[in-house]
Each structure stands twice: as C-alpha cells, then as structure tokens.
Description:
It comes from Actinocrispum wychmicini. The protein is mainly alpha-helical. The protein is built from ten helices and no strands. The longest helix has about 35 residues.
Amino acid sequence: MVTLVRAELGKAAATRSFWVIGAIGVVFCVGWAALDVFVFGGRSEDAYGMAQQGYLFALILGILLTAGEYRHQTITWAFLVTPGRGRVITAKLVTNAVIGAVLGIAAVIVTAPAAAIMLSATDRAVYTPGVPGVLVASVLTTALWGVFGAALGLLIRNQTAAVVIAFVWFFYVEWVLIALVPAVGRWTPTGVSKAVIGMSRAGFATPGDLLPQWAAIVVFLAYCGVVAAGARVISVRRDVT
C-alpha cells in the first residue's frame, strides 16, 4: 500500500494542476482571512479558521486526479498491474487525504501569520486559547475534503460533470436550502466542515447554529466514509472502459 501511495503522489506532483490549484488555494485562504478581519469583523479564531477555506481546492484536486484517470485511461493500467482493484482505490483515497493535509498545512503556514498581522493592525487579539485547535482542525477538514473529492471523481468518472456538480451544490443548492430551511445549514457538508473548526456561524445568507464540534466531526467523517465506501464498491465492480 505504501508503494502504491508513493506512486500516486508522484503522479499527482507531476501534474501542473496540482501546483497551480494548490497555490491558488493558499492565496484564497489569505484573501478570506482579510475579508473576515476587515469586512466581517469576526472573532480571532474565525480569522485563523480561514485557513480551512482551501477545502474547495482540495475537493477539486481530488476530483481532477481521480476522474482524470478515467479520462486518460491510466486507471486501466493501474488495475491491470495491481492485484485487486480495491487496493488501487484505497491508495487513491489515502493519497488525496495526504494531498489535502499538505494543502491544509501550507494554508495554515501562510494564513496564520497573515491573520496575526491583520488582527494586530486592527488592534484585536492576535492569539486566543482556541487558535491552535482551529489550525489543527483546518488541516483535518482539508484532508477530508480531499478524500471527498477523490471519491466523487471515482463515482462520477467524468471530470467536467463532477466539477460542475460540486460547484452547483456548494454555490447554489446549499444556499437555496439554507434560505428555505435555515436549520438545514448545520447538516450540510459545508456547515459541518465549519463546525469542525469551531467557526461562530455558518457563513450563509441566513446562518443557523452550527453543530457541536464533536458531533460535526462524527457527521463529517460519516459523509466522507459513505462516499468513499460507495466509490470503492462501485469502482471494484463496474467496467472501466
């Protein structure tokens, strides 16, 4: 399994999209931290929590890396040379968890000092006891979003369709659901993800109370587990051509 994961990481690092999307994701996090400090006026923990905003890019990377294998038919060779399709799928999911974690760590390394500088410039608390937990949770959620994206790519197989579905859900469907039934916000993937890092509100047009952190972790793990298990079962059984 370690050999398979290393091979998958090597393939990912060899693609231009890996570096471009990752870099944009880190910059995106800093931009959100600036918005939180200078526009929204959120808590100090919320500013540091913007390191988690790279989740969308971990999701997209996961989709592109797995669905792209079906597009280029490279996954066929992986299945042929590796005993058991399940091992290949598991390796891809683990790889994208690692990639998500690396993206999360990079976002924390860049966003944390930027947030501290901006908070200091506005005469607000630069550090609070909750900050370390927020940063650790940001890395955890970004890693899980990488798994979610990889599983989604394996399920749908078409890169364009998978990315479009993800964007429609996160930028339209969730907002409509929250507007119609605000209480749903705490159960959506985005709302649960924000609760994991302990953000003070869902961040939607009509924010509702978020789940307790422990409950959010359980629900988020369940979401990722269900999608990943579905991707593994379907990928093992269906024809790759």
